[in-house]
Amino acid sequence: AAPAPAAEPEPVAPATAAAPPAAAPPAASSSGRVFATPLARRIAEQNGLDIATLSGSGPRGRIVKADVESALASGVPASIAAAGQGVSLSTGMADSTVLKMFDEAAIEKKPHDGMRRVIAERLTESTQSIPSYFVTMECELDAMLAIRSQINAGAPTDENGKPAYKISVNDFIVKAMAMALKAVPMANVSWTSTDRIFHKHADVGVAVAVEDGLFTPIVRQAELKSLSTISAEVKDMAGRARSKKLKPEEYQGGCTAVSNLGMFGVKEFTSIINPPHASIVSIGAGEKRPVVRGDELAVATLMSASFAFDHRAIDGALGAELAAAFKRFVENPTSMLV
């Protein structure tokens, strides 16, 4: 369930104690030389820590061993990581220190290409800057599966007997997400430091796995498109994504995304929001489970849909409203066809 809204903060009485003294400035001379003990320098170098960013507690502001150890305990400064000065973002240790932990004969190093660097940067940005919360809905798929079968069975064929289209469950999911955003327009939003950006259309990204990476091509104005059009666009863009022939405007922007791991048998999972999106829905595998209808036990095909929301733009009740709208469209697919 979505977290409850934060309680109103109670008034805090003005502090009567004196404020603690400000930290000493970095131990650097007018010439730019940093004053530090040899031991402090060695520990900093071994851990990829830029000693010039530290403040010293020793005599005349000299950096001592305790200053370096304190900095390491509190995490590597962002300025070092951002500069890429040989620091492993996953461990906070110098790359050389990490490599020494492994037998070189038993590993193979593959330098990061542009795609992996962008993915790492964007997802790091997301986890560090977006306050996310999660909502999961269970959706019955039986009505959707029945209509899908009818639509595909009635598809026209060419002279070779090839059908003009073959609608997938994921095409319905994209359409349902677009229709839900139009039904709950306050959730069709992006966040910036100065504004909430409300979108007039539902531009839905579709996560596509490519070799050693990921693209999210965007189905523009998905709420206005037929299932067959969505299907054709997704197949086309997914094919070009795998051959890395997508144009930037085809995968940049959008307001939300769909990530589907159901084909791998994954029952339920959550995804990381991809800025500037404020939401993403993660789709698990459909499976037959017992359900209770009235007082009778029945069997239904159920699918888990887990939503991640940016709490800055979409509050808990609003996120739940969008998830409920999505569920309604999935379970009543005819409402997407009129």
Give your account of this protein's structure:
With 338 residues, the protein is of the alpha+beta class. It has 10 helices and 11 strands. The protein has helices at 38-46, 65-73, 78-83, 95-99, 114-129, 142-153, 169-183, 227-242, 248-251, 316-331; strands at residues 132-140, 189-191, 196-198, 204-206, 208-210, 213-215, 218-219, 256-260, 279-283, 287-293, 296-310. Strands 1, 4, 7, 8, 9, 10 and 11 form a 7-stranded mixed beta sheet that branches. A two-stranded antiparallel ribbon has the order 2-3. A hairpin with a 2-residue loop joins strand 5 (208-210) and strand 6 (213-215).
Q: What brief labels describe this structure?
A:
two-stranded antiparallel ribbon, alpha+beta, disordered N terminus, seven-stranded mixed sheet, 338 residues
Q: Nutshell version of this structure?
A:
32% of the residues lie in helices and 17% in strands. With 338 residues, it is an alpha+beta fold.
Topology:
Elements: H1 38-46, H2 65-73, H3 78-83, H4 95-99, H5 114-129, E1 132-140, H6 142-153, H7 169-183, E2 189-191, E3 196-198, E4 204-206, E5 208-210, E6 213-215, E7 218-219, H8 227-242, H9 248-251, E8 256-260, E9 279-283, E10 287-293, E11 296-310, H10 316-331
Chain-averaged pLDDT: 84
User: What is the N-to-C order of secondary-structure elements (H for helix, E for strand)?
Assistant: HHHHHEHHEEEEEEHHEEEEH
Number of strands: 11
Shape: elongated
Q: What structural category characterises the helix and strand content? A: alpha+beta
Q: How far apart are the first and last residues' alpha carbons, in Å?
A: 32 Å
